[in-house]
Amino acid sequence: MSLTFMSPLSEIREQINRVFSDFVEDTAMPTEWPNMAKTGTWLPPVEITETENEMVVCAALPGIKPEEITVEVVGNTLVLTGETRRETKYDAKHFHRSEFQYGQFMRRVPLPEYVQGEKCTAECHNGVLEVKIPKLEEGKRKRIEVKTT
């Protein structure tokens, strides 16, 4: 039996990874060589912002046609789904590396109670999906005047 030294930081990182692996969806990438066409599940990166009147969720979906993207509101959750596929054939002898992500994706974004999910709109421009979700009147910020006595 051989003993291996594990640095304290490595041990902490391993424990954190174990804890979060139960909560984070699988982000498998095609990494096996030479079978680079293998696909998995991945999560597109999102950017969530808020204005006075709406919440805006943007997702980076390069190379995916708008008709291949499904946008749904289920309860208080925005659900984005779709799939990317390798479009071109390749010769494995000349293929060195792929960091592109292929396969199905599903991204869930929890929504606050003060938005109107049923009235959201979605547009896709240059590989970026933009979903706008209007706020209820009660969810809009109201400034309260502070009076002096």
Write a concise keyword list for the protein shown above.
149 residues; mainly beta; Immunoglobulin-like; four-stranded antiparallel sheet; three-stranded antiparallel sheet; 1 helix
Describe the structure.
- The chain is mainly beta and 149 residues long.
- It has a single domain, classed as Immunoglobulin-like (Sandwich), CATH 2.60.40.790.
- The strands form two sheets. A four-stranded antiparallel beta sheet has the order 1-2-7-6, with no helix packed on it.
- The longest helix has 14 residues.
- The protein starts with 7 loop residues before the first helix and ends in a 15-residue tail after the last strand.
- About 10% of the residues have low confidence.
Short account of what is shown:
The chain has 149 residues and is mainly beta.
Write the layout of secondary structure elements.
Blueprint: H1 8-21, E1 46-50, E2 54-60, E3 70-74, E4 77-84, E5 103-110, E6 121-125, E7 128-134
Antiparallel strand pairs: 1-2, 2-7, 3-4, 4-5, 6-7
Q: What's the alpha carbon Rg, rounded to whole Å?
A: 22 Å
Shape, per Cα inertia axes: flat
CATH topology: Immunoglobulin-like
Major sheet description: 4 strands, antiparallel
Strand content: 25-35%
